[in-house]
């Protein structure tokens, strides 16, 4: 906005008034070159997108030895005119990734109060869902359930990988695979490939493999094969439908969360 012009009788113009736009926590501000210039990652954070014009000088500013009562004043300055790209990234601590129908929404509903849509067909989840896990000491951990990834998602197949920006702030990624299928290790490899195609730093984030649907007959053999193909990996066998090992999962999430918070505090110091 432009500043107000100056007036006579020693009156200077007002500076342009503030225009404040409230946005959700987690908003990213990018310039026209898509370079991040603002990250509103906490309550109360502010970003000055453009400065308004200064008010014009009144006639007294132009007084001189020869002109005691000038009949001239100054126009207000023009404000800045800038364009930005605004992007929302959720503030989840953990990102839940997997292929369609792997049981992500069922798991989110089992460990939190979120109520995402659950159905026995692919791409039931069409947008990210955020669930909050409540602990007995009143600590809260947010888990983001994203739409299923398929092979070639980075080429915009299926729902694409546009939703992966919501897990870029996560402390760790939860790779959920369906061990009732014959080759769960290939699902893990595919998920990691799609992650690396989206963001190499994101693919290096700590990962926890969740072997879901161990209640299905024959899944134990697939779990053993999964461990053979991925030696040294952290693999937790669960059943989101029947609640098997979910307490162990919540304890593991809490330990990862506490370690992440400890590292953040050390970085600030």
UniProtKB/TrEMBL annotation:
What are the entry keywords? Answer: GTP-binding, Nucleotide-binding, Ribosome biogenesis
Domain Obg span(s) in chain numbering: 1-91
**Stored InterPro entries:** G_OBG, GTP-bd, GTP-bd_Obg/CgtA, GTP1_OBG_dom, GTP1_OBG_dom_sf, OBG_GTPase, P-loop_NTPase
Name the CDD domains on file.
Obg
Q: Which Pfam families does UniProt cross-reference here?
A: GTP1_OBG, MMR_HSR1
Listed GO MF terms = GTP binding; GTPase activity; magnesium ion binding
For the OBG-type G domain, which residue ranges apply?
Answer: 92-258
Q: Per the record's keyword annotation, is Kinase included, yes or no?
A: no
Record carries keyword Translocase: no
**Any GO BP:** ribosome biogenesis
Listed under GO cellular component are: mitochondrion
Task: Check the record and name the PROSITE patterns matching this protein.
Answer: G_OBG (PS51710), OBG (PS51883)
Similarity comment text for this entry: Belongs to the TRAFAC class OBG-HflX-like GTPase superfamily. OBG GTPase family.
What name does the UniProt record give this protein?
A: OBG-type G domain-containing protein
Taxonomy of the source species: Eukaryota, Metazoa, Ecdysozoa, Arthropoda, Hexapoda
């Amino acid at each position: 906005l432009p500043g107000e012009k100056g007036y006579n009788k020693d009156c200077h113009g007002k500076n342009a008034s503030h225009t404040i736009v409230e946005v959700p926590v987690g908003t990213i501000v990018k310039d026209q070159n898509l370079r991040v210039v603002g990250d509103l990652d906490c309550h109360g954070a502010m970003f000055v997108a453009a400065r308004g014009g200064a008010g014009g000088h009144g006639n007294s500013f132009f007084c001189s030895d020869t002109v005691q009562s000038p009949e001239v004043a100054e126009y207000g300055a023009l404000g800045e005119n800038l364009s930005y790209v605004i992007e929302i990234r959720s503030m989840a601590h953990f990102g839940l990734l997997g292929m369609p129908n792997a049981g992500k929404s069922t798991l989110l509903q089992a460990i939190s109060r979120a109520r995402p849509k659950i159905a026995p067909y692919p791409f039931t989840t069409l947008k990210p869902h955020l669930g909050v896990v409540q602990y007995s000491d009143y600590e809260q951990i947010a888990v983001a359930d994203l739409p299923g990834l398929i092979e070639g998602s980075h080429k915009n197949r299926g729902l694409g990988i546009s939703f992966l920006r919501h897990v870029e702030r996560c402390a760790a990624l939860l790779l959920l695979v369906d061990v009732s299928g014959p080759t769960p290790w290939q699902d893990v490899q595919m998920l990691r490939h799609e992650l690396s195609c989206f963001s190499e730093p994101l693919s290096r984030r700590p990962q926890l493999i969740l072997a879901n649907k161990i209640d299905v007959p024959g899944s134990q053999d697939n779990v053993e094969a999964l461990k053979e193909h991925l030696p040294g990996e952290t693999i937790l066998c669960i059943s989101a439908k029947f609640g098997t090992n979910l307490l162990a999962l919540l304890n593991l999430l809490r330990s990862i969360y506490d370690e992440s918070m400890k590292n953040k505090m050390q970085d600030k110091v």
